Amino acid sequence: MPKGLSPEDNWCFACGPANPIGLKLSFYEEGEKVKARFRVKPEHQGWPGLVHGGLLATLCDEAMAQWLWRRGFVAFTGELKVRFRRGVAVGEEVLVEAWLKERKGPLFLLAAQVLNAAGLPAVTAEGKFILKGHNP
Ligand SMILES: CCCCCCCCCCCC(=O)SCCNC(=O)CCNC(=O)[C@H](O)C(C)(C)COP(=O)(O)OP(=O)(O)OC[C@H]1O[C@@H](n2cnc3c(N)ncnc32)[C@H](O)[C@@H]1OP(=O)(O)O
């Protein structure tokens, strides 16, 4: 793990409860997936009334990293492919979920999606993660 990066600090932008400007995502397990709910705020918008795509990509990236982290893998995102299918409105509560598709040695391929308030896919994503270590 790089210097300055301590999980105990809880400063992860997406999931760290101590980060004052973080998203404070709280993940849980359901079957083979990790999931989190997130209510989008006005400060997350890009086009007026619509959530910024970069933030939705962050939700996917984080969910996939969480899937690995919770299983003891410290793995970095090497590649992230994101498809924006439906705009998400400010104020909406979305569900982000991630799961493993394949592992080839140190390379993990995961998938994620953001479901809108109606349960329809707003974003689908795939990520390649490279194993860098294990957490105790
Ligand atoms: C508080 C608690 C929080 C707990 C939860 C924490 C959540 C945090 C979530 C944050 C998620 C992020 O945004 S992470 C931050 C964004 N990502 C980064 O900063 C990573 C920056 N990039 C790197 O550090 C590096 O390039 C790596 C680690 C990705 C790869 O470098 P490396 O480790 O030297 O790996 P290397 O030997 O080159 O390659 C190993 C194998 O992976 C393949 N490979 C390498 N890079 C890639 C790639 N981009 N796409 C595809 N494949 C790749 C190689 O071909 C090779 O396969 P073969 O030839 O052996 O078959």
UniProtKB/TrEMBL annotation:
Q: Which GO terms describe its biological process?
A: fatty acid metabolic process
EC numbers for this chain: 3.1.2.2
Q: What name does this protein carry?
A: Acyl-coenzyme A thioesterase THEM4
- Family recorded in the similarity comment: Belongs to the THEM4/THEM5 thioesterase family.
What is the organism of origin for this protein? Ammonifex degensii (strain DSM 10501 / KC4)
UniProt-listed SUPFAM superfamilies = Thioesterase/thiol ester dehydrase-isomerase (SSF54637)
Taxonomy-wise, where does this protein's organism fall, top ranks first?
Answer: Bacteria, Bacillati, Bacillota, Clostridia, Thermoanaerobacterales
Molecular function (GO) terms listed? hydrolase activity
Domain Thioesterase: from-to ranges: 49-106
**Keyword Hydrolase assigned:** yes
Tell me yes or no: is Lipid metabolism among this UniProt entry's keywords: yes
Pfam families the UniProt entry points to:
4HBT
Gene Ontology, cellular component aspect:
cytoplasm; membrane
What InterPro entries does the database record attribute to this sequence? HotDog_dom_sf, THEM4/THEM5_acyl-CoA_thioest, Thioestr_dom
